[in-house]
Amino acid sequence: MIVPDKHTNIKFSVIYISGIMMNEIKTNGIITYSDLQNIILKKIGKQALDVFELSISFLFLLNKIDYNEKLDSIMLIDK
What we know:
Elements: H1 14-28, E1 30-32, H2 33-44, H3 49-61, E2 65-68, E3 73-76
Antiparallel strand pairs: 1-3, 2-3
Helix pairs in contact: 1-2, 1-3
């Protein structure tokens, strides 16, 4: 669910969670996948787990984040 409709709770949308992810990554510089997931769960709730993967993929496809396999971490791509 990327495009919200009138029945969408914006708090659990891909766009909203992606925005929170961007802020957290920007604040921390580099953050592990599990730390980011825990932060999102604390801020939004368990329902965010359903959209967490989609939000990561959304940011990756937009070339906003990069995943470091060796460190299992995510960082922002500067442009």
